[in-house]
Automatic annotation (TrEMBL), chains A, B:
Required co-factors: Mg(2+)
Pfam short name (any one): polyprenyl_synt
Species of provenance: Rudanella paleaurantiibacter
Single Gene Ontology BP annotation: isoprenoid biosynthetic process
InterPro entries registered for this protein in UniProt: Isoprenoid_synthase_dom_sf, Polyprenyl_synt, Polyprenyl_synt_CS
Gene3D superfamilies cross-referenced by the UniProt entry: Farnesyl Diphosphate Synthase
Gene Ontology molecular-function annotations: metal ion binding; prenyltransferase activity
Protein name: Polyprenyl synthetase family protein
Family: Belongs to the FPP/GGPP synthase family.
PROSITE patterns in alphabetical order: POLYPRENYL_SYNTHASE_1 (PS00723), POLYPRENYL_SYNTHASE_2 (PS00444)
Length: 323, 323
């Protein structure tokens, strides 16, 4: 099986899904954000999860898209809350239209996600819906924690990991779990898929934090140092704030408190503080640990090795990402 | 059967429903808005709809609350969009907390509504969810149309009726339909309930527009003339804009265009224009017509007359409302 087959099936479903028609102000933003692209990791995970246990993975395509629509709904609403001007290099919905339209289009996107998710067989419908509801609530909890952290200076590493787990990873876990549920996998395998997805997801997000500081500018899609410039509370900064003492602590706080600064100078200075504190090594060790745990979870899944290989290859791509 | 039994069951369910716990900023606003009160018309309609066909109406209580939670989710988000400072005499969620919290709490409320709705029997789950999805999308469409109408001066009566049907009435129709579905009523009766709910709902909303102008200040909960002061595009104003000619037309537009005015004077003047155009009679005839159509729909429902009497009494209260 060539994994490109999954991507083609998803692309086809994306192009053929009707989100609604009138009023145009309500539905145009949905088509707009769904067409901005992205890696489509989540729906791909659902198809990979289903393929582990069945040749009839096509029946997972519409529910897989539900996960992608839900993900984009959270982006549309998060962008309002974060007052973000750009998403994937294009104007965000609230910038291109306005806040009210972004609120209401997002609401109807969430409804659309539920409608796509209805396309599972009746015996598993209640379980799928119940798990999706729990996941969706957790994603909202993660976003609220993220906003709460903005005004706090005492966020611990454990709190940060819990936040990214809720905001990002549980949906990756659900995407895999959903594939397993649709393919009627055994309960233990479904749970291993979910946990593996969560662990890989945490590693994935921590790698994002690492690449912001130590990524190769030629490969990293975003500006290297963007998080440092914005004082964003990433794993790197939280770890540095916990570890720094004496002069280094004073210097780090001084950079965090400056309102006027040369961006390149700040990135260089804060990166040097990270270097002295060994934050890169701490982060790399944590990332490796979460990825290893995720692979151990996948190891426990009862499926044909050849099929599992596709999932493992996919996970390896996430591990080795440079952008 | 004393209808107070239904209200007690709902109140009990309201008090025992857990919406979530942490972070508090996410879940406190849900408890806040759900405790602001209100007539609880929608969940009551679900229970009345179920009781038509079964003694086991208690199994409709949790799904009934789903409709009330969904309704309050729409209020929370609409209040942001309308920048409304008060809801039922208390600060709105975005005023008491902030816009971001109102967006995100609303999102998780919608998820909560879906979770409560899951409490129906498996054979009807897909149908219930599918109908709820359609209704929820229509409510969003209605809100978008309402916002679009604010900046238009050529809204027709037909467009206005369609807007209030979507924004308000389809949810009343769904509330009754849901009761019928849960009680496993025949398809024809379920459809008559839905259509009856929609027609009564349109009459109910038009009566709201009428009472704003011709209500008894001693009985009407809100300020009489509030819609006139705000130039709100109600049935009354749309009808007057369609009917007015010559000097009356000039005078009406003059009042609509003034930014400085004495409120009582404007209410008196516009009401006199409505009087001269016979808008009250036109509105009363339309309201009667929708209510009559609703009662004709209910007539067609196949249920014991004694049970149907409870629904008819409830609908009569809506017809005869003075507040």
């Amino acid at each position: 099986m060539n994994p490109a087959v999954f991507s083609e099936a998803l692309l086809n479903q994306l192009q053929n899904t009707q989100y609604g028609d009138q009023p145009a102000e309500l539905y145009d933003p949905i088509r707009y954000i769904m067409n901005l692209g992205g890696k489509r990791l989540r729906p791909l995970m659902t198809l990979l999860g289903a393929y582990l246990f069945t040749d009839d993975w096509q029946k997972a395509v519409k529910p897989a898209l539900a996960v992608e629509v839900f993900h984009n709904f959270t982006l549309m609403h998060d962008d309002i809350m974060d007052q973000a001007p750009l998403r994937r290099g294009q104007p965000t919905v609230h910038e291109k239209w306005n806040n009210n339209i972004a609120i209401l289009s997002g609401d109807v996107m969430l409804v659309n996600a539920y409608e796509l998710l209805l396309d599972v067989e009746t015996p598993i419908l209640k379980r799928v819906m119940s798990r999706f509801n729990r996941t969706a609530a957790e994603v909202c909890e993660g976003q609220q924690l993220d906003m709460n952290f903005e005004t706090r200076t005492d966020v611990t590493e454990a709190e940060y990991i819990e936040m990214i787990k809720l905001k990002t990873s549980v949906l990756l876990g659900f995407a895999l779990e959903l594939g397993g549920l649709i393919a009627r996998a055994d309960d233990a395998s479904v749970e291993h898929l979910r946990e593996g997805g969560i662990n890989i997801g945490i590693g994935f997000q921590l790698k994002d934090d690492l690449l912001d500081v130590y990524g190769d500018p030629a490969k990293f899609g975003k500006q290297v140092g963007g998080d440092i410039i914005a004082n964003k509370k990433t794993f790197m900064l939280i770890e540095a704030l916990e570890k720094a003492e004496g002069a280094l602590k004073t210097e780090l706080h001084s950079w965090l408190n400056r309102t006027q600064f040369d961006k390149a100078e700040k990135v260089k200075a804060v990166t040097e503080i990270y270097d002295q504190l060994g934050i890169r090594q701490i982060a790399e060790a944590r990332i490796s640990s979460y990825f290893a745990q995720g692979f151990a979870n996948f190891e426990q899944v009862s499926a044909e090795p050849a099929r599992k290989e596709l999932l493992l290859q996919f996970a390896h791509q996430l591990v080795e990402r440079e952008s």
